């Protein structure tokens, strides 16, 4: 995959998205496809056989060795959203959001089941690299151009892009023994502090690198309603490789924490994949055959949804 400044490759999407938004999937997923699939982001259940998991306060109060012993006894397994509905006493619906499915008030939090097990919630706007490869394998079989297309990243991911920031033009020191290591660290911290109000007036703006280069950071964006994206030329066949993260241009120092694509489409526009940062699922528009293949794929928690679908809760937001 290689960065491209030719953002006109995504112009076709703009006319097929609802703007202004109407609260349906077409706020983020383009209209005009035969079928749509919602891929529910993974959740995991953690338990200790024949025991209730301790409270979070109890875990926080444990010694390091106590927590290490606890974690060594925990068993983890994937949990489908339908299973989660059964655990929390709700009814599964292909349009349900995680918050309503589990009666939770905060989607990002770990939930405790009535049996005392822990349930780790789905990530919003993100897929695990292995799941990206799983989905891409199916997508590659449903396009005539698997080696040619576009992969896009939402430009709002923290740390992805570099930018000009204010650096303090003065240093505030605390008097004392210059050999005092703690005092030295304290003075260094004050000197670097971006919270120094004076720096907002007299500070010097300097470039701070992100994961992507300055050229890319300052380059053109694909502007879609409510979202801007950095584009890369690349085929879905590259994402189907289990080791796709090794060659991703946005790979940072921590390869296990790599961002998953926000948009993917092939040159023949046979389908489009959308992972919006506000959604706990990924949307795919394509043919009926593609939809059936995704729903049938082992390892994916995928359901077909109709065009104009409104996801439960707050709908699609941006």
Q: What do these coordinates show?
A:
The chain is an alpha+beta fold and 318 residues long. It contains eleven helices and 15 strands. The strands form three sheets. Strands 1, 2, 7, 10, 11, 12, 13, 14 and 15 form a nine-stranded antiparallel β-sheet that branches. A four-stranded antiparallel β-sheet has the order 4-3-6-5. A two-stranded antiparallel ribbon has the order 8-9. It is globular and about 55 Å long. The two termini are 28 Å apart. Mean pLDDT is 86; it is low at 168-174, 193-197 and 314-318.
Features:
disordered C terminus, 4-stranded antiparallel β-sheet, 9-stranded antiparallel β-sheet, 318 residues, alpha+beta, 21% strand
Short note summarizing the structure:
25% of the residues lie in helices and 21% in strands. It is an alpha+beta fold and 318 residues long.
Main β-sheet description: 9 strands, antiparallel
Number of helices: 11
Element string (H = helix, E = strand): EHEEHHEHHEEHEEHHEHEEHEEEHE
Cα distance spanning the termini: 28 Å
Helix content: 25-40%
Number of strands: 15
Strand-residue proportion: 15-25%
Mean pLDDT: 86
Which value, in Å, is the CA radius of gyration?
A: 23 Å
The chain-level structural class is alpha+beta
Uncertain segments:
168-174, 193-197, 314-318
- Principal-axis shape: globular
